[in-house]
């Protein structure tokens, strides 16, 4: 039997509705769903408040996004994505998008690889990956006195 290193080890189920939104910056927060044990990717719910913009960024791996509620506008392609819409972004894709409408936009996202945030010249100014995303979650838990969900606090494989 082969083992898929991206698959999370068996853990107890947890209710995402009971997990608070972890703030990333004004208008942007997330709920982690899983971090792949080998650090190759992660899944999350991303919440954008009205008017929030995701700055230019590039993906080193595939990204799968499914809008659960609210709408977003993909600035590069001038497409509007509403509830129930799936978006695939191939490795190397660079884009920027923003929340539109009066209600928050909530997207289930699976990220493989890194997200590289870019300045106006296309220079990488910041990166986010599974390990840094988990650290953000665990730091937030420590700062707020919340007990981390055990499945989200598991160490990465060496």
Automatic annotation (TrEMBL):
<dbReference type="InterPro" id="IPR014710">
    <property type="entry name" value="RmlC-like_jellyroll"/>
</dbReference>
<protein>
    <submittedName>
        <fullName>2,4'-dihydroxyacetophenone dioxygenase family protein</fullName>
    </submittedName>
</protein>
<keyword id="KW-0560">Oxidoreductase</keyword>
<dbReference type="Pfam" id="PF12973">
    <property type="entry name" value="Cupin_7"/>
</dbReference>
<feature type="domain" description="ChrR-like cupin">
    <location>
        <begin position="15"/>
        <end position="106"/>
    </location>
</feature>
<dbReference type="InterPro" id="IPR025979">
    <property type="entry name" value="ChrR-like_cupin_dom"/>
</dbReference>
<dbReference type="InterPro" id="IPR011051">
    <property type="entry name" value="RmlC_Cupin_sf"/>
</dbReference>
<keyword id="KW-0223">Dioxygenase</keyword>
<dbReference type="GO" id="GO:0051213">
    <property type="term" value="F:dioxygenase activity"/>
</dbReference>
């Amino acid at each position: 039997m082969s083992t898929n290193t991206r698959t999370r080890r068996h853990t107890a189920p947890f209710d995402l509705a009971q997990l608070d939104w972890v703030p990333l910056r004004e208008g942007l927060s997330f709920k982690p769903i899983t971090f792949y044990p080998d650090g190759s990717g992660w899944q999350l719910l991303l919440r954008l408040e009205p008017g929030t913009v995701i700055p230019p960024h590039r993906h080193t791996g595939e990204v799968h996004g499914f809008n659960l509620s609210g709408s977003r506008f993909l600035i590069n392609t001038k497409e509007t994505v509403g509830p129930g819409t799936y978006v695939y972004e191939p490795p190397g894709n660079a884009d920027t998008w923003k929340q539109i409408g009066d209600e928050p936009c909530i997207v289930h996202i699976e990220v493989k690889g890194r997200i590289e945030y870019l300045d106006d010249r296309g220079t990488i100014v910041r990166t986010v990956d599974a390990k840094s995303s988990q650290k953000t979650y665990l730091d937030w838990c420590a700062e707020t006195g919340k007990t981390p969900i055990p499945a989200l606090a598991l160490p990465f494989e060496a």
